[in-house]
Amino acid sequence: MKALLFICHGTRLQKGRYEAEEFVKQCINSVAVPIKEVCFLELAEPSISQGFNACIQKGATSISVVPVFLLSANHIKIDIPKVLKCLKSQYPETEVILGRELGVHDALSHLLWERIMNGVASLSNNSHVLLVGRGSSDPDVKRDLEIIASNLQQHYGIPSIQACFLTGSVPSFEEVLWNSQNSYDQVVVVPYLLFSGLLINGMKLTTKRYMELSKQEVILCETLGYHPILREVLLTRIKETLQTKEFAIF
After folding, report:
1. Which tens digit of pLDDT belongs to each residue from 110-144?
2. Residue 69: how many CB atoms within 10 A of its CB?
3. Which pTM was predicted?
4. How many CB atoms are closer than 10 A to CB 241?
């Protein structure tokens, strides 16, 4: 019997966990797979092991794993496969297939633009947009976020845009923000994050402190959150995972 196991990152904040679970549940109503479970990599339960075992207990013989992550990094390449291989060894007869993250997708440019327009009435020729990712030591994360920033700029003619990171990669969000002082009329900060959590709370504090000291206008946009565009991207990844064995863990 086929099962889908969705892995979200996890957060200590109940609101963030709720948002992640609700987003996945709203996306999978139209997916004709008998067993569907949601779990978290860290900081929340159910864990991957708990979600996997729930699939087994419901009769799953093939588990397609969909990571609900924006970008590929060590979590996708190392941490999740390590846990799944361990679980696979406990259930050798069960097929386990790991799909890919949401990744670089043209549709996400439209969602990011909508978030920008929800935050500001318009961009001037002297506006500067900061696309802020979580960050990772994996160079693919830096490359992909820069590609997304470039796609967004090309689609909508944004005069100035820069990708930066909260941790693990350079340039850092705080460094780029302070380097923007006195150079632009307006700075628009776009969190490339899925849901609420400690990271967005930290960004709010950083931008508040910056505005108090610099007297420059900074608009902090909303996280991506649940959106029909994000739903369609996730559904695309679900279909890919169900149709391929390219990433099978044997």
Report:
1. 999 999 999 997 888 999 999 999 988 889 999 99
2. 20
3. 0.90
4. 20
